[in-house]
Amino acid sequence: MKKNRISSLSFLSRFFFLMLTPVFFQYFALGFIWHSIYWGAVTLVMIIWVTFLLLTPIFGRIGCGWFCFMGTAYDCVRHTRKPKAEYRKTITWLRVLMLTIFFTSAFAFFYLNIQRGIINGFHFNTFRLEASFNRHYCLVWCVDVGMASLTALFTNKRWGCRNICIFGLPASYLAKYSRLVPVVDTEKCVNCGLCEADCRTGVHLLKYINENKGLIADSECVMCGSCSVACKKDAIKYQFVWNRKEFLNKNS
User: Fold this and answer.
1) What is the DSSP string of the chain?
2) Residue 224 structural domain
C-alpha cells in the first residue's frame, strides 16, 4: 500500500467505530462475550470477534488495529505524550490469568443457568443482546473509554491491550502466522529508530530490521501503519509474505 494510506484508513476505521460503539455497544464490546456465554447464545459480538480471530493468520491483528474502540481510546491519549522507544515484553501469566478468569466465570454461570432450567444449552440467537442507546449503556461505554484513557496515561504503549485484554492472547498466538506484515527495505533504512518510537504497541522494530532482514514478524503488531508514516525514508511497506523462510533466504 502507498505510504500513509494504511495508517489513514486505520485511523478512519477506528475513529468510526469509537463514535459508533455507544449505539451498538452490545455488538462490539468484548465484555459482552461473557454475557453471551452466560445466556448460552451465539450472539453478534461473538461472531464478530471470532471472525477477526479467523482472519488473523492472514491479515494479522486487524481487529485490534482497525476495529477495537478501546484500543483507539488508548492511542488517542498516547498521542498526547512524548513517544518512547521502549520495548517491553508482555506479561504472559497476567494474560493467561485474565483469560482464565473471564471464561471460567462465564461458563460457571452458564452451567448454573442450565441447572436452574433457565437455558438448555448453546443456541444461535444473534441479536440476543439488543442494541440500546440508553443511559446505562452510554455510561458503561464512557467508563470503559475512560478507564482505557486513564490506563494509557500511566502505562507503556497499549499495556492494557497487550496484557489484560482477553482477545490479546489468542490473537497474538495466531498473528505469528500472519501473511500480511510490515517489511522494511534495509537498503533505504538508516536505523534512525523513528518507526520504533512511534509504534503503538512498542514492537522492537530495530531488532527485526537488523536480525530478520527487515521482516517485522512480531505478533504484537496491530497493522495500524504508524511505523510507515514515521519512516522518513519511505522504507516500510505492508505486503503479503506467504513464505517467510523463502523471503529470508532470498534476502540473505
Assistant:
1) --TTHHHHHHHHHHHHHHHHTTTSHHHH-TTHHHHHHHTTEE-HHHHHHHHHHHHHHHH-SHHHHHT-HHHHHHHHHHTTS----------HHHHHHHHHHHHHHHHHHHHHHHHTTS--S-EE-TTSS----SHHHHHHHHHHHHHHHHHHHHSSTTHHHHHT-TTHHHHHHHHTT-SEEEEE-TTT-----HHHHH-TT---HHHHHHHSTTB---TT-----HHHHH-TT--EEEEE-S-HHHHHHHT-
2) 179-250
Number of separate domains in the chain:
2
> Does residue 13 share a domain with residue 46?
yes
Last residue of a domain, one of 156, 172, 188: 172
Segment 67-90, tens digit of pLDDT: 998 888 888 887 766 555 456 788
State pTM to two decimals: 0.89
Please say which residue of 143, 172, 201 terminates a domain. 172
